[in-house]
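Input/output pair, single chain:
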Amino acid sequence: MKTAQLRTLTRWIHLLGAAAIGIYVYAPWHTIRWFTLLMQILVIPALSLTGLWLWKGHLLRRKKDTRSFPVHTFHS
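Output:
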């Protein structure tokens, strides 16, 4: 997947999660147990991960791309 496509997908996941949080806060759905559990188990961790990826993902990609493994040569 290209970087632009990955960023767009991540942004949409983050926006949909934010909409779910807005519904949870402003609608009377916070009294429904399964919706609260869904927020705690799925939406909030997904928002945390996508937010970090959107914020610092370029550093992680750069570190992954430039990582070089040391080559050991033995001289006799």
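Residues 3-58 form one domain. The chain has a mean pLDDT of 86.
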